[in-house]
């Protein structure tokens, strides 16, 4: 559910997904008027429902997850920081070998809050916090190293699917994080000051080809 709501595009969920409703593996229940297809409201997972509401609110608050432009994967004019970058658990950039590693189940993705290249409803340049999202699909815990990037000096944990009560820690670059098996962690870093960047270095938000 977290992967879906933190992905670009429109999240598509099935009625009842937000409360843990199950069709017992049957994905073709259009002709079933039975317990298989009914939404079991009485057994709704209220904790999951509250978590999904939190995800929706988080997504609405941060335009980094609802971009209006495609990612470019290259530095935002003279800032030296890409709009998106992928990292291996050891904090190094993902290379071709990493992508072709069939047994790899863990990675991190950096989202640049200054790389949105669009305007808000008031015609102002839209920016957001920077985010580092860590995915561990392995069944065992994996140590992730926070990449050494100049986007911020510290990262605040804002979401941890393995322990929702543990969402207050602050991490620094090159610090190790132990990520539980089959879990996702989202870290946030306040954006670097645009006031310190020359206007000509800002993203061209009028570029209609971008």
What does this structure look like?
The structure is a single chain. With 210 residues, this protein is an alpha+beta fold. It has two domains: 2-61, no CATH class; 70-201, Immunoglobulin-like, CATH 2.60.40.1180. 11% of the residues lie in helices and 19% in strands. The chain has helices at residues 2-5, 46-61, 96-99, and strands spanning 84-87, 106-111, 130-136, 142-145, 155-160, 170-171, 176-179, 183-189.
Low-confidence stretches: 192-210
In the CATH hierarchy, what is the superfamily of the largest domain?
A: Golgi alpha-mannosidase II
Report the mean per-residue pLDDT as an integer: 85
Round the Cα radius of gyration to an integer and report it.
Answer: 19 Å
Distance between the termini: 29 Å
- Number of structurally distinct domains: 2
Structural class: alpha+beta
Tell me the number of strands: 8
Instruction: Report the sheet-strand fraction.
Output: 15-25%
Helix content: 10-25%
What is the CATH topology assignment of the largest domain? Immunoglobulin-like
Number of helices: 3
How many strands, what sense, and barrel or not for the largest sheet? Answer: 6 strands, antiparallel
CATH class of the largest domain: Mainly Beta
Spell out the helices and strands N to C.
HHEHEEEEEEE
């Amino acid at each position: 559910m977290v992967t879906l709501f933190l992905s670009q595009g429109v999240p598509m969920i099935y009625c009842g997904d937000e409360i843990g409703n199950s069709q017992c593996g049957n994905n073709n229940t259009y002709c079933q008027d039975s317990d298989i297809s009914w939404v079991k409201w009485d057994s709704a997972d209220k904790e999951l429902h509250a978590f999904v509401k939190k995800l929706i609110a988080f997504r609405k608050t941060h335009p980094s997850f609802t971009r209006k432009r495609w990612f470019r994967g290259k530095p935002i004019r003279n800032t030296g920081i890409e709009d998106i970058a992928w990292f291996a658990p050891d904090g190094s950039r993902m290379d071709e070998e990493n992508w072709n590693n069939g047994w790899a189940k863990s990675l991190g993705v950096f989202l640049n809050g200054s790389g949105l290249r669009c305007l808000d409803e008031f015609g102002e340049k839209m920016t957001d916090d920077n985010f580092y999202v860590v995915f561990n699909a392995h069944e065992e815990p994996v140590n992730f190293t926070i990449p050494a990037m100049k986007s911020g000096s510290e990262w605040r944990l804002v979401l941890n699917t393995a322990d929702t009560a543990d969402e207050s820690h602050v991490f620094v670059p090159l610090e190790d994080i132990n990520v539980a098996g089959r879990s996702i962690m989202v870290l946030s870093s306040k954006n670097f000051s645009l006031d310190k960047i020359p206007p000509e270095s800002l993203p061209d938000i009028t570029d209609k080809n971008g």
